Amino acid sequence: MAKRTAAKKTAAKETTAAKKTAGKTGAKAAAAKQVPPVKRQAPAKKPAVAPGKATAAVKGVAPAKTVAPKPPRGESRTALVRRARRIDRELAEVYPYAHPELDFENPFQLVVATVLSAQTTDLRVNQTTPALFAKYPTPEDLAAAVPEEVEEILRPTGFFRAKTKSVIGLSKALTEDFGGEVPGRLEDLVKLPGVGRKTAFVVLGNAFGRPGITVDTHFQRLVRRWRWTEETDPDKIEAAVGALFPKSDWTDLSHHVIWHGRRICHARKPACGACPIAPLCPAYGEGETDPEKAKKLLKYEKGGFPGQRLKPPQAYLDAGGKPAPPLGAG
């Protein structure tokens, strides 16, 4: 009897211990069901870095998104001058061979070519003027030309009737008022038919070596994007930008800005991700910021695009530029 009683007590203890263990296990399982799963936190994003000069992306690595710092609101006059001049210095390194993209051998050819460049490309003008100057090499020759014959030559440039009237008219003015020579003064040049301040400064700066700012559509667009001025009138833009630079820099500044506008800082979709002055540009981000995508937007000689001139300067060719194709070749 004593043995049976001891065995019953032992079995009872084991049963009680088993129930306690089962209870603890069940409680843990229930608790596990009630605790929501812990969400994994996404890795912290690396801060964006302002781009320096355009550089090639490392192979196999996706290019980082870049953000350029904007100039502070209420930028001081001194800060504006410094930023503007630095932009020009940077562009001078990118385009060391920047030059007028109209072919010319003398002031007369340059003034005619500049008048013809309105509402068309310099490339188209350069493809057209060889035939014009071969037939009418001097102001006297063009002044005496039959308008219909000139119109046929100038037809590819667009607005050929108005342009014919202008180039014949300015040739007559040069012959009658200036002895067949292109004047080297602004006040005289703007008196010629079809010649405004923009054309006059192109001629003064590139044919006579006298500083001038050429405010074409590219120049207007870029200096406003860079917040050099808020003016919209070309004459006021010329005055505002001219005040930021020494007069001796004006002609080259015009070339640098215009080249940049044609090749990288386009009107509709600027290639921000491939821009060498992105850290200095308050308009960074208006265009494509991905470096690889931006590269595809470039219109640049070394990328396989032809130059504008049939007979470009030697420095341009030495730097890798290509002559433009003749008329009918592309």
Show the helix and strand layout.
Layout lengths: L1 H33 L42 H18 L12 H10 L5 H14 L3 H5 L3 H8 L5 H18 L8 H4 L7 H11 L9 H9 L8 H9 L7 H14 L27 H5 L18 H5 L12
Helix pairs in contact: 3-4, 3-9, 6-7, 10-12
Summarize the structure.
The protein is mostly helical and 330 residues long. 49% of the residues lie in helices and 0% in strands. The longest helix has 33 residues, at 2-34.
Rounded average pLDDT: 81
Proportion of residues in extended strands: under 5%
Helix content: 40-55%
Q: Return Rg in Å.
A: 35 Å
Q: Please report the total strand number as a whole number.
A: 0
Termini separation (Å)? 119 Å
Give the ordered list of helices and strands. Answer: HHHHHHHHHHHHHH
Global structural class: mainly alpha
Structure explained in plain terms:
With 330 residues, this protein is mainly alpha-helical. It is 49% helix and 0% strand. It has helices at 2-34, 77-94, 107-116, 122-135, 139-143, 147-154, 160-177, 186-189, 197-207, 217-225, 234-242, 250-263, 291-295, 314-318. It is globular and about 55 Å long.
Provide keyphrases for this structure.
330 residues; mainly alpha
